[in-house]
Design brief:
The chain is an alpha+beta fold. It has helices spanning 206-209, 214-217, 355-362, 382-399, 455-466, 480-492, 501-510, and strands spanning 5-7, 12-14, 18-28, 33-43, 49-60, 67-72, 85-95, 101-114, 117-127, 147-148, 192-197, 261-266, 320-321, 326-328, 334-336, 340-343, 346-349, 353-354, 368-370, 379-380, 403-405, 427-430, 443-444, 447-448, 473-478, 511-513, 521-525, 535-539. The chain has two domains: 1-127; 284-539, Muramoyl-pentapeptide Carboxypeptidase, domain 2, CATH 3.30.1380. An eight-stranded antiparallel β-barrel has the order 3-4-5-6-7-8-9-12. Strands 22-27-25-26 form a four-stranded mixed beta sheet. Helix 4 (382-399) runs antiparallel to helix 5 (455-466), helix 5 (455-466) packs across helix 6 and helix 5 crosses helix 7 (501-510). The longest helix is centred in the last third of the chain and has 18 residues, at 382-399.
Length: 546
């Protein structure tokens, strides 16, 4: 089922208990003024209207400010014990070609306080489409409005007992032909639904939002926030590590801001996924014959590293905001934030972390290898890069082997054939633990070739990945034959009994068969506090080893 609450450090936020009516939103790309007005209606358990109140909020954001607070346009003395009091935070989802912020596409997190309860709703704004010129004889269309009376509701949750997509393969996989047909490799479109954007529900200081309301303050716990507001005029941070010299496909040209536009609030959750091909391609990961860019050379001697590149575990949670795009970690290291924009198969990557650069800096302490650097598909979010470092260290400790890394995302994300996903730096194709090549074909038509990989080390690596609480894993996509082999191993090794059971069950609840993963597994991360512009998918529990 979809979540009904969000637990924050300060309070429980209730979901799906607010109806937003007559919402009108305006954004002026020249003045950067963002305003929204409408009516918030609190609903009871039976969706009956309890109370309502009009609201009007606005703010002008700085050119480099990707998130900001909306404040009331007029002073009000209404308290939350009388009527619902509405506040909001905006997270911008787009940039101009020179990477300055464009808020014509944004996510608005509404916070509504009423009678010692705090509710939240989330809406996404999109530019209003320009009307096509009508034919000379056509009747002029009625003027469009920027109003929305629809409550934000989630998609229907997938049935818990529904079968996994694509049963076990019946024939050994073959190498993929060049992508001339336009078919894309898909993962989970039929087995998941779009969830909320990470947004600012977890990082908004509720005591500041409702600072003059004593009644609601009485239920807000004191807390320190991971990313406090950035003060205007904050000094620019030292630049994070320089990215590899990979040029984008199109030239960077500053786009002149459009005239003032009206945007329409839309439901954030129900979104129709791209249709999957009737026969999902089964692929391997050979290197391309014609390099897209010159293959970078990894230094033969160690290079000076910053704290984040020592190979030691780094807590990825931002503790202090330095600028609109950077934050500081607990050890003082700077990291990019809000890199993943959108969701896995419809989005882009901003200020991507180069795994190849990280490999260079770690040198002999890098227990992972970017196998196909000529593809330039080694850009990730900060979280994904750190997860790969941890998995490599784990594999080295237990198996004396490196983790082989294939595709993550391109420099600026977006569609990169043959993948439909891999668009926001939160997906990575990784090799199974093996002493028989980098990406050996483990799954065959008759099961698995046990000489090609270690089932014990694979299970150990998957369990370790799901145990990284500061970098939560959403899903691992593998081949059905390998799932069966992992289940057989776990039962024989006693992993599903006693104190070990809960950790093992998490693995089998969240691994899923997708055709084409017989020679590598696909790791997908959840959005986290450092990725407000990222949108999660909601998955059903698989229970693959019941």
């Amino acid at each position: 089922p979809t979540p009904q609450t969000i637990e924050t450090a300060q309070a429980t936020l209730h979901l799906e208990k607010i109806k937003m009516k007559g919402v009108v939103l305006n954004y002026d790309a020249i003045t950067r003024r963002f305003s929204v007005k409408g009516t918030a209606i609190v609903l009871d358990e039976n969706k009956k209207e309890l109370a309502d109140n009009d609201f009007s909020l606005s703010a002008v954001h700085a050119a480099d400010d990707a998130s900001f607070r909306l404040t009331p346009t007029e002073k009000s003395t209404i308290k939350s014990n009388e009527k619902p009091v509405v506040r909001a935070q905006v997270t911008c989802l787009d940039t101009f070609s020179d990477d300055t912020i464009d808020c014509s596409k944004a996510v608005v997190d509404f916070f509504i306080a009423y009678k010692k309860q705090i509710y939240t709703e989330q809406m996404e704004t999109k530019p209003k489409a320009a009307a096509k010129p009508a034919a000379p004889t056509a009747t002029p269309p009625a003027p469009s409005t920027a109003k929305s009376d629809s409550p934000v509701t989630p998609q229907k949750t997938p049935a818990p007992g529904a079968p996994a997509t694509d049963a076990a393969v019946d024939a050994p996989p073959t190498a993929a032909a060049p992508d001339d047909t336009g078919a894309l490799q898909t993962e989970d479109e039929d087995d998941s639904i779009l969830g909320r954007y990470q947004g600012q529900a977890q990082t908004t200081d509720l005591s500041k939002e409702f600072d003059v309301d004593d009644e609601i303050q009485s239920v807000i716990k004191p807390a320190n926030f991971t990313i406090p507001d950035v003060k205007p005029g904050a000094p620019a941070p030292t630049a994070p590590p320089k990215k590899d010299n990979v040029k984008p496909a199109t030239p960077t040209t500053r786009v002149k801001p459009a005239p003032p536009v009206t945007t329409t609030l839309v439901k954030p959750v129900p979104a129709t996924p791209a249709p999957a091909p009737s026969k999902p391609p089964v692929v391997t990961k050979p290197p391309v014959t014609t390099p897209a860019t010159p293959t970078p050379t990894i230094p033969a001697t160690p290079v000076k590293t910053v704290p984040a590149d020592t190979g030691k575990k780094v807590d990825v949670t931002p503790v202090k905001s330095i600028s609109a795009i950077t934050a500081e970690l607990v050890d003082g290291t700077l990291r990019y934030i809000d890199q993943a924009i959108g969701f896995t198969d419809q989005g882009k990557l901003r200020n991507g972390t180069s795994l190849l650069e990280k490999q260079r800096k770690l040198n002999t302490s890098a227990f992972f290898e970017v196998v196909y650097p000529d593809r330039a598909m080694y850009f990730a979010t900060f979280e994904m890069a750190e997860m790969i470092v941890r998995l490599g260290n784990k594999l080295n400790d237990t198996f004396n082997r490196k983790l082989n890394v294939s595709d993550i995302s391109s420099l600026k994300g977006g569609l990169a054939k043959p993948h439909l996903s891999h668009q926001i730096g939160m997906d990575a194709d990784l090799g199974y633990p093996s002493t028989n090549g980098k990406f050996p074909q483990v799954s065959t038509g008759n099961g698995v070739d046990s000489s090609k990989y270690s089932v014990a080390k694979t299970f150990d690596l998957f369990r370790f990945a799901f145990q990284q609480k500061d970098i939560p894993v959403a899903r691992i996509f593998v081949d059905q034959n390998i799932i069966k082999d992992l289940c057989k191993y776990a039962k024989a090794a006693g992993e599903l009994a006693g104190d070990k059971k809960s950790a093992a069950q998490v693995v089998f609840d969240n691994i899923q068969h997708v055709a084409g993963h017989g020679n590598h597994f696909h790791l997908r991360l959840k959005c986290g506090p450092g990725q407000k512009t990222c949108r999660d998918r909601i998955y059903r529990v698989m229970n693959q080893c019941g």
